[in-house]
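Notes from hallway chat w/ T.B., transcribed later so I don't forget. T.B. wanted the structure written out for a chain they're using in a teaching module, and asked if we could keep both sequence and structure tokens in one place. Agreed to drop them here.
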Amino acid sequence: MLPIITELRSRATEAAYRLTLAAATAVLAHLDPTPPVRPLPRRDTPTVPAAVDVPRLVADPATVFSADELDAIDPETIAHAADEFDQAGDQARAADRTKRRARKFLDRLPAGVYGAWLVERVESPRLVADLELIRATYAAAGLGDVPMRPCAPSLRVQRVEVPVLAVAA
């Protein structure tokens, strides 16, 4: 029964969204008869084509060690730092899984005090850009696509097999 209600709610939300968009377009067309703009994509339609890209290598930042500094570093120090980085990533992923599992349970609790724990929901101070509104504003102003920039490069550390050269005696 619950999946049917969820599906009906989803359909009703989508219909309300389309109706609101149509009404807003009609009101704006009546107030300012400018040429129509292309409609916004549906909410469940990805706006960026989903392509599987292989990560591109990027240039090293300006803060990397110089050749002289790199020569002075013991290879064991690099191996130790890479191992710590790898282990910390594993621990972070495990912690994220644990946190998601606990959150899934805690999200179902009503606000209140449970033993020594207070469970409540508060408004987030984090702000997120409303991309649909930004796209609509750009389209209405005839500015084309919203400019985007890539994120900062990610540091990826992987253990690799190092071939051991046999020394002939």
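Follow-up for T.B.: Residues 14 and 43 are 8 Å apart (CA to CA). Might be a good example for the class.
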